[in-house]
């Protein structure tokens, strides 16, 4: 397949992987199990690094939105490239395992150093992606072992997958069968554990929020009730002109309110204009009197003028010389009928409420915050200073989540909302909300998600350990089972190889003695078959030996009358006149032809009986080729010779090599019935003598190239039916060349015809 085709196939599979990645399974918060790597690895195995790289680049685009950084995308792309590059040397599982063995450096550089993800998060993410990739490649390898799948994809399978042993197949299947249920059950258990822990955290948060809300509501109620009672008392004590009692009386009442109301930090009575008429305690932090202080700028001074009942303010900043930090006050109007004579104010003791809240969450990671209707923080259990400034949650990610959470419900927010997923998940907080309806306040109790994350990470590592143990057990079982099954099959294979090598006594039943019934039966059937084949082969060989002996005897017997006939023809040629010479020459040629056929039959029989000796001598092969080729072509009026030679000196049997050259050149002439050029070349090539004989004859078919070297084989083509011959010339030539430690080939010539090539070793002089 072309490079463009591989890229196109990788692109299509990458789109499929991108679609599968849309269904990412969240194993842990921020940690997802992707299905796309299965398709990416399939592209890498089937279409090489280009297909795997393109598929990984397209499929991994989903991770940019999922994890908010490019390093997961780059990792998937590199995995496709790496496995595709090694697919011809290793199985997919081994290639992917090598990739993940080198990945820690990549994760340390990108996730930890560049993105500043915590080391634990980097470890979890790296292990998750490694498990994801290895599981995908294991599924792929098992799928590619299915016969139906292999049949359809065989042209695309690399060599390590095209030739898979039974042991590897068993190992892959058993490992997958052990790991997948473990992963599914372990993942489900881990998720259930996480959900259970989350429910517990939410219940803890809501319980603490209800307790604090009740305390806040109770404290506010006591303070409101106290200022309301004092306001009524003072309203009943107004003079006829509507004037409040004197400062001494007012201070006494205020002291009683502060003394008997632990929720009250300080209190004062104000005039309608907002001027303090009496204060308890009477002096500020510096010891100066507070009577006469002007509070007319406070919003509650305007609000209480129109109120009929006590009201509670939002959180505000106290006067620097009176109360530092945030404070909340309860105010009640002093009103007699329609006459407004002033107000009573009590500042609530927020540090006391904060201390109470801290007592509720002591020993835990919970944090309690109470907010007013505007989002201002009334108090925070995590605050260190009593005089903390007024803060607000408006505009924070917590405020955005609170908009969608009702009272008595729970939610989650991230402290770093715009960070990469792993960092953002590390800053998750789980909270519960309970409202104080009378005030519009909200009590928030939250806990960091680190506790849950650590718990689930422990479960995840435990799952990985269990999976590793299960994988080791599966591999051990696979090796044991494969040895049980493969050993008998290998016994049959070894017995077959020994049979091919000529060992007729080789049997397989002994190797399969302890094997399962089916394999033992296979070995016994093989032994029965080999026994029968051995008997048949012995009969065939005996017949062949008898035939070779017959041919040898017949050839010897025929050579005697042919020699005599040749002698008589020569005598008649000398005695008869010239008009009979042409007829006698024709008779002589026919006798020579029959003699050659008899010699070929004799050579074939001797070779069958392994009785063909060589008489080696030092000679120039090119001279032998020249002499035989020129003689043969000179007797054919339709053919011409193109001869190219160079000296090729070696130890050869001259007569036998003359026989080889004679057979090759005569075949070129014989199978070029319309004539033409016969090319004969000799040259030195890599320390060997090379002889080539080329013609433009009828040529040969590809399936005939090996068949024609058989004994008495001439092929079954219609074109050779009118051409005489026994079909032993090439057979004899091949055996002679083999005795010289050489080799011969016959192939079709481009443009028509055939090419016969002989290589013979040249011994040093």
From TrEMBL:
<keyword id="KW-0902">Two-component regulatory system</keyword>
<keyword id="KW-0808">Transferase</keyword>
<keyword id="KW-0418">Kinase</keyword>
<dbReference type="GO" id="GO:0007234">
    <property type="term" value="P:osmosensory signaling via phosphorelay pathway"/>
</dbReference>
<feature type="domain" description="HAMP">
    <location>
        <begin position="483"/>
        <end position="538"/>
    </location>
</feature>
<keyword id="KW-0067">ATP-binding</keyword>
<dbReference type="InterPro" id="IPR036890">
    <property type="entry name" value="HATPase_C_sf"/>
</dbReference>
<dbReference type="Pfam" id="PF00512">
    <property type="entry name" value="HisKA"/>
</dbReference>
<dbReference type="InterPro" id="IPR003660">
    <property type="entry name" value="HAMP_dom"/>
</dbReference>
<feature type="transmembrane region" description="Helical">
    <location>
        <begin position="126"/>
        <end position="146"/>
    </location>
</feature>
<dbReference type="GO" id="GO:0000156">
    <property type="term" value="F:phosphorelay response regulator activity"/>
</dbReference>
<keyword id="KW-1133">Transmembrane helix</keyword>
<dbReference type="InterPro" id="IPR004358">
    <property type="entry name" value="Sig_transdc_His_kin-like_C"/>
</dbReference>
<feature type="transmembrane region" description="Helical">
    <location>
        <begin position="166"/>
        <end position="188"/>
    </location>
</feature>
<feature type="transmembrane region" description="Helical">
    <location>
        <begin position="35"/>
        <end position="58"/>
    </location>
</feature>
<feature type="transmembrane region" description="Helical">
    <location>
        <begin position="93"/>
        <end position="114"/>
    </location>
</feature>
<dbReference type="InterPro" id="IPR003661">
    <property type="entry name" value="HisK_dim/P_dom"/>
</dbReference>
<protein>
    <recommendedName>
        <fullName>histidine kinase</fullName>
        <ecNumber>2.7.13.3</ecNumber>
    </recommendedName>
</protein>
<dbReference type="InterPro" id="IPR003594">
    <property type="entry name" value="HATPase_dom"/>
</dbReference>
<dbReference type="InterPro" id="IPR050351">
    <property type="entry name" value="BphY/WalK/GraS-like"/>
</dbReference>
<dbReference type="InterPro" id="IPR036097">
    <property type="entry name" value="HisK_dim/P_sf"/>
</dbReference>
<dbReference type="GO" id="GO:0016020">
    <property type="term" value="C:membrane"/>
</dbReference>
<feature type="domain" description="Histidine kinase">
    <location>
        <begin position="553"/>
        <end position="764"/>
    </location>
</feature>
<dbReference type="GO" id="GO:0000155">
    <property type="term" value="F:phosphorelay sensor kinase activity"/>
</dbReference>
<dbReference type="Pfam" id="PF02518">
    <property type="entry name" value="HATPase_c"/>
</dbReference>
<dbReference type="InterPro" id="IPR005467">
    <property type="entry name" value="His_kinase_dom"/>
</dbReference>
<dbReference type="GO" id="GO:0030295">
    <property type="term" value="F:protein kinase activator activity"/>
</dbReference>
<keyword id="KW-0472">Membrane</keyword>
<dbReference type="GO" id="GO:0005524">
    <property type="term" value="F:ATP binding"/>
</dbReference>
<keyword id="KW-0547">Nucleotide-binding</keyword>
<keyword id="KW-0812">Transmembrane</keyword>
<keyword id="KW-0597">Phosphoprotein</keyword>
